[in-house]
Design goal:
The protein has eight helices and seven strands. By secondary structure, the protein is α/β, with parallel strands linked by helices. The strands form two sheets. It has a five-stranded parallel β-sheet. Strands 3-4 form a two-stranded antiparallel ribbon.
């Protein structure tokens, strides 16, 4: 059985994003599709004493482009985001352990393409922090045909998948019978059941960036992403 999942790249995604990656043999970054404004592609949330704060990357307002073609407008956001992270996570138990890793990303690297940047950081977090061994692919490698469900089926065929892990949003356009006819088993991702951990500030929030988990629990992060499923 070859397990495959595919999704758009996100900016500093939440733990559920990495959980999906951990459960498959091959993960495909699906960025040669329509860019959508005010989505997870260019922004995510962190915790502060005053509630949740959005960290957003300026990429312009045009929706007439693919995610893989979205350009980052300037570098000013990098320093600003890092200052916010320093301010609100500087006292987290494991911040200093991962400070160099993220400081280099925000202050030393120059990012011009949103998709390339997201993919690069997600891969590094998987391999260097979360111990995820999944193989990565880019949907642009496959010259996919069709739209929506047809395109997904084409991708699964070209990756030789026999099992596909899909997020709940895909239920809007997926006909499970078509997948079954191609001998592809579907499993729907369930985001419930994640164990809580000690966060800074009051009221626990699951839906924040993976940064929150890494800075608060350090080397135990893999357990809170996927390890708890094996208890």
């Amino acid at each position: 059985m070859k397990k495959v999942a595919a999704s758009q790249s996100n900016y500093i995604p939440w733990k559920g994003y990495f959980d999906i990656i951990s459960q498959v043999d091959e993960y495909v970054f699906y960025d040669d599709v329509q860019y959508t404004k005010e989505d997870w592609r260019n922004r995510n949330k962190i915790k502060t004493p005053n509630g949740l704060l959005w960290l957003s990357i300026p990429v312009g307002k045009s929706e007439n482009r693919l995610i893989c073609d979205v350009k980052i407008e300037n570098r000013d956001w990098q320093k600003k985001h890092w200052q916010n992270i320093l301010q609100y996570y500087g006292n987290a138990p494991f911040f200093n352990e991962y400070k160099t890793f993220f400081e280099h990303f925000y202050l030393s690297e120059m990012h011009v393409n949103l998709s390339d940047m997201n993919i690069s950081l997600i891969k590094k977090i998987c391999t260097e922090i979360l111990n995820i061994k999944t193989n990565f692919k880019d949907s642009r490698e496959f010259n996919l045909q069709g739209k929506k469900e047809d395109r997904v089926l084409d991708l699964l065929s070209k990756t030789n998948a026999t099992f596909c892990l899909l997020g709940p949003a895909a239920k809007n356009y997926v006909n499970e019978e078509r997948f079954a006819k191609k001998n592809i088993e579907i499993k729907w991702m369930d985001y419930s059941g994640y164990p809580e951990y000690k966060q800074l500030f009051e009221k626990f929030e699951h839906s924040v960036s993976i940064l929150d988990l890494i800075f608060n629990v350090g080397k135990d992060s893999p357990f809170y992403v996927y390890g708890w499923r094996n208890k």
